[in-house]
């Protein structure tokens, strides 16, 4: 019974995993990692362990029986998951993994520390002053990068000692690579070391993932060649620029420019905070997990991060942090003796912090989904509390109504009203409005009419008023809507905001300056959902009305058909195709024999494509 409960709890966690590339860790009862695996789709891969087919293997069956918990880390690509799995297996040495030996597992690209440096492939990293880039997930990827580098820059491939003394002796001669244009002959002094080094710096920036300098260099060469009528050469540079645009070799999982450090990121909600930890060793991520904290009422983000780092340090081997830690903001540094905290602004360290923040946010989403499934009332209250706080409301907006206008160049103007209760659509309460008093495309006046009709009726019926009204539009629509509420005497009883579509600006009455909600906040997501639902509902009604208007116009062009006959046909058949295929008997029963004959004659002369036959 206990085992089935354990599997059920694990399956609940698996159901919340993202469908993204990453690595997963299975933990035993003692909290140690017993298996590390990679996945193109985390949810699908991890779920496969809990199916009967997966358990056909005795080894898998034993491992699954010992899983007490699971963790995961999300990355950008499957190749990055491959590399992260490699580094974590070497670091954690899980019991059920085939242990990898050393860094010769994957290929690297090296720029040799020598005069006129060579750019080569290697599987061995040595402390010889050379610069190493990688590792690459496969030899194919590494070879593709090397070919790209060599096609753009003319670099030597020979093993000659090109010291100034050796070149000065004049004992070398150019080889075939020089004659076919792959080398500029530094061995005989035809290329200076300064010029060669400039090319090496471009190669270095390219291998680090920055293609801008190389792109600018190639573009200048292409323009120069084209200006001198060397179009074939210009076409070669153009192809290299296109190849460079498609090139992506940079991995945030492994970086040769980083040594040993820790990474901490923090995401804070009103009632919880989430801190992700990553440990980097020799440029590779070797450990990663996220912890949840319950901050106090007056805790600042700095205090929360300080506590989170202290708590995470207790779980690390020896209880020690690395000498350098990357953080989004500085904690209380005096508590962590010997640790230098860095808030990165650019480069590899910033990329690692962004990766850590992404994992914090995904962990937060998983926790919120768990709450939504297990305690929907708490989930709803949290969303309403976020709306109340962000929009400065006096009460949680359990009843929200949103309005949107729709017209096409002033024709068939309509409006929609959608209703949300407890942050969920109440579709039975949605309402459509035909604009009656406004001529042409006037969104302001249309909004004024609809708001007036809606709430005058609710007041007459003594019905419940919403706690929040959302107007789809900016300052103009909001002003007209608010003035209507003032005339009705309910402006002090109902809060109202405008939501502009361009960059999701929120407007309040009496404030001409827009308010910008956090792009990741749940309050903004709820407002956008309400606004989009009002737009969808309004557009659907508008299209339907336009279609009926077109049918009515078509029927009114038939001789002897009056308004009453047209209305009867519309109510009965709804579409032109049904009227066109109706029998004379059906039409005669509805509008009389003579008018039925006119309808049949009209559609015989005007085929379905709208072209009238000649007589």
UniProtKB/TrEMBL annotation:
CDD domains: GIY-YIG_UvrC_Cho. Keywords: Cytoplasm, DNA damage, DNA excision, DNA repair, Excision nuclease, SOS response. It comes from the Bacteria. HAMAP family: UvrC. Residues 19-98 form the GIY-YIG domain. Residues 339-485 form the UvrC family homology region profile domain. It comes from Alistipes hominis. The UvrABC repair system catalyzes the recognition and processing of DNA lesions. UvrC both incises the 5' and 3' sides of the lesion. The N-terminal half is responsible for the 3' incision and the C-terminal half is responsible for the 5' incision. Interacts with UvrB in an incision complex. It is found in: Cytoplasm. Belongs to the UvrC family. The gene is uvrC. Gene3D superfamilies: 5' to 3' exonuclease, C-terminal subdomain, GIY-YIG endonuclease, UvrC, RNAse H endonuclease domain. The keyword GTP-binding does not apply. InterPro entries: GIY-YIG_endonuc, GIY-YIG_endonuc_sf, GIY-YIG_UvrC_Cho, RuvA_2-like, UVR_dom_sf, UvrABC_protein_C, UvrC, UvrC_RNase_H_dom. The keyword Cytoplasm applies. This is UvrABC system protein C.
């Amino acid at each position: 019974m206990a085992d089935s409960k354990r599997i059920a709890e694990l399956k609940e966690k698996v159901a919340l995993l993202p469908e993204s590339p990453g690595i997963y860790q299975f933990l035993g009862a003692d909290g140690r990692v017993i298996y590390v695996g990679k996945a193109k789709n985390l949810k699908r891969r991890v779920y496969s362990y809990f199916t009967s087919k997966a358990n056909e293997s005795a080894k898998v069956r034993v491992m699954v029986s010992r899983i007490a918990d699971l963790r995961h880390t999300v990355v950008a690509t499957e190749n990055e998951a491959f590399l992260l799995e490699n580094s974590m297996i070497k670091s954690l040495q899980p019991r059920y993994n085939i242990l990898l030996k050393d860094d010769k597992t994957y290929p690297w690209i090296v720029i040799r520390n020598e005069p006129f440096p060579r750019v080569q492939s290697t599987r061995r990293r040595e402390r010889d002053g050379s610069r190493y880039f990688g590792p690459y997930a496969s030899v194919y990827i590494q070879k593709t990068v090397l070919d790209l580098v060599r096609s753009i820059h003319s670099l030597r491939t020979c093993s000659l000692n090109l010291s100034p003394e050796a070149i000065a002796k004049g004992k070398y001669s150019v080889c075939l690579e020089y004659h076919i244009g792959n080398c500029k002959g530094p061995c005989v002094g035809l290329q200076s070391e300064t010029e060669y080094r400039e090319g090496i710096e471009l190669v270095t920036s390219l291998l680090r993932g920055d293609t801008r300098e190389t792109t600018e260099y190639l573009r200048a060469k292409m323009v120069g060649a084209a200006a001198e009528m060397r179009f074939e050469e210009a076409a070669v540079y153009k192809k290299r620029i296109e190849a460079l645009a498609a090139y992506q070799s940079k991995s945030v999982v492994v970086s040769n420019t980083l040594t040993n450090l820790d990474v901490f990121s923090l995401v804070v909600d009103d009632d919880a905070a989430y801190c992700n930890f990553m440990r980097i060793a020799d440029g590779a991520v070797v450990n990663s997990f996220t912890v949840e904290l319950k901050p106090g009422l007056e805790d600042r983000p700095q205090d929360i991060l300080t506590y989170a780092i202290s708590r995470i340090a207790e779980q690390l081997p020896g209880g020690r942090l690395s000498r350098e830690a990357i953080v989004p903001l500085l904690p209380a540094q005096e508590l962590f003796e010997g640790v230098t905290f860095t808030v990165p602004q650019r480069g590899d360290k910033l990329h690692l912090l962004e990766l850590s923040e992404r994992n914090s946010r995904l962990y937060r989403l998983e926790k919120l989904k768990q709450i939504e499934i297990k305690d929907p009332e708490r989930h709803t209250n949290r969303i309403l509390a976020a709306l109340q706080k962000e929009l400065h409301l006096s009460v949680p907006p359990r009843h929200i109504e949103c309005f949107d206008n729709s017209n096409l160049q002033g024709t068939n103007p309509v409006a929609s009203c959608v209703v949300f209760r407890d942050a969920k659509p109440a579709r039975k309460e949605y309402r459509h409005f035909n604009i009656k008093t406004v001529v042409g495309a006037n969104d302001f006046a249309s909004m004024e009419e609809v708001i007036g009709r809606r709430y005058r009726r609710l007041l007459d019926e003594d019905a419940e008023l919403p706690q929040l009204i959302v107007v789809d539009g900016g300052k103009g629509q909001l002003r007209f809507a608010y003035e209507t509420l003032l005339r009705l005497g309910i402006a002090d009883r109902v809060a109202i905001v405008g939501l502009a579509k361009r960059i999701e600006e929120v407007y309040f009455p009496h404030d001409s300056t827009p308010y910008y909600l956090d792009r990741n906040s749940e309050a903004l997501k709820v407002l956008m959902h309400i606004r989009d639902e009002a737009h969808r509902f309004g557009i659907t009604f508008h299209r339907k009305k336009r279609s009926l208007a077109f049918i009515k116009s078509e029927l009114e062009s038939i001789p002897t058909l009056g308004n009453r006959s047209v209305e009867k046909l519309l109510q009965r058949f709804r579409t032109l195709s049904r009227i066109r295929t109706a029998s004379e008997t059906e039409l005669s029963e509805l509008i009389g024999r003579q008018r039925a004959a006119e309808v049949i004659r009209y559609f015989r002369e005007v085929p379905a494509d709208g072209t009238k036959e000649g007589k």
